Amino acid sequence: MTGNSAYRCTLVSDIDMKRCRSILLILCLPLVGIGCSENSPDDGFAGPCVVTYGDEVLHIDEASGSATSAIIGQLELSSFVVNGQVRTSEEVVAQRQSNVVLDGELLRCTLPCSFGTESGQWEFTALAPGYLPTGQSATAEYATVSGGCPSFGTDGTHISAVLDEAGG
Description:
single chain; 168 residues; alpha+beta; 2 domains; three-stranded mixed beta sheet; 2 helices; 43% strand
């Protein structure tokens, strides 16, 4: 009888282990596809969706004065707001930038310059010697986005900045 009792304990343990493994498998299976969209091609990737960037999302190609149309070669940029959220200058250039130097809370931009990877509505202030701090606004997007999950963004938005002259 003690043999049957020991067998019964082992049998119950085996059944519980199988049940436990089945429940664990059922709970973990949906995690394999997290982050991938239904539209994405079967690209062999599992896990969170990865977005990579081959370009900055916002390019300032040139700058000029509003009254004189004088060409400005370097800008100081500050007070960034992206999609309604305040962003530090460091956050703006964290992933990608070109011809930009971080100087405290300022970005010193030698034109043409580019920065950022976050698509959407960008607002910031531009300043240059002889010009007033002038608000800039642009909708920045990648013209080319390849893939679904993962995806790759290129061909950011190009803008021209216009600053108001001081004393004018």
